[in-house]
Amino acid sequence: NDLAALLECLICAADQHIIPAPAAAPDHPSITDALDALLIAAQDLEVIPGMSLADHLWTHAAPLQSGEVASTLIRRSRPRHPIPGFLLLYAVDARSPLLYLPQRQPLRVRDGIEIAHEAAGGSFLALIRCEAAADGRAHAVTAYAIPIYHARRFVPVSASLDRDVLRALEYLQVALDAHGAECAIRRELPFSRTGPTRLTLSLSLPGRATREIHLGVAGDERSGHSAVSLPPIDFLVTLTNWEDGTFIDWLGKTLP
Questions:
Q1: What distance in Å separates the CA atoms of residue 99 and residue 108, rounded to the nearest whole number?
Q2: Which of 1, 68, 129, 215 is 20 to 30 A off residue 178, Cα-Cα?
Q3: CB 221 within 8 A of CB 159
C-alpha cells in the first residue's frame, strides 16, 4: 500500500515513533509540534521528481473544502499528468469511509479508508490522497489510517495494551531522569505488521555505555509473526503479566 509506506516513511523521518528522554525534550509536545515535524520531514520527500511533498501536503481538512487544495493541484498539474495532493490529519476515530476529526464534521473518503489494527481504536493518524476533478474541485479519494498513542505523541500502536505500556514507560522516563539517567523509547518498524509490537528502551547513564532493552507487547487481538529481522525480545508483555504486575516487577529488577 503506497499510502501506508508513505505514512510510515513520514513518521520515521520526523522521529515521531520515538519518545525522547525528558532531558532531550523538556517541553511537553503539542499536536501542532507533531504535525509541524511531519511537514518538515515532508520537505525531503517528493510527490513527483523535483516537486516536494511538503508543497502538496496539508495538515487540516479546511483547505479541501475552501478550494485551496483544488487550485494548487490544478495549477501544478500537467496535461495528462495530474498530480495528487495529500491531507495528513489527526482523527479521534476512523470507520471507513468516514474519518472523525476533532470539532469538525466527519470527512468522507470516496473509495474508503484502510485502517491498520482497527481493534486498537483510539486516536488515529491518517494520510488521505486527494485528486482534482473535472468540476474544479478536489476530492478525498482514498486513505490509510493507523492508531497512535495519543494526540501529542504520534507513536503508532497496534492494540490498547500498547498505550498502557507506553504510558508506564513515560512515567519510568521521568523517574530515571530524576536520577540522572536518560531513557528514550522507540517503536520499531514496520508499524503495520502482525505479531507483537516491538519497543526498544535506550538507557544512558553517566559514565556508562548506552544499554538497550527490547520489549514485545502482545495484545490478544494479534497473531502471526514478522519476517523482519529484529533483536531478540528481552520481555514479552501480555495482558496477563501486565495486569498481575509481573512486567513492572521485572522492569524494576532489570534496570540498574
A1: 6
A2: 215
A3: yes
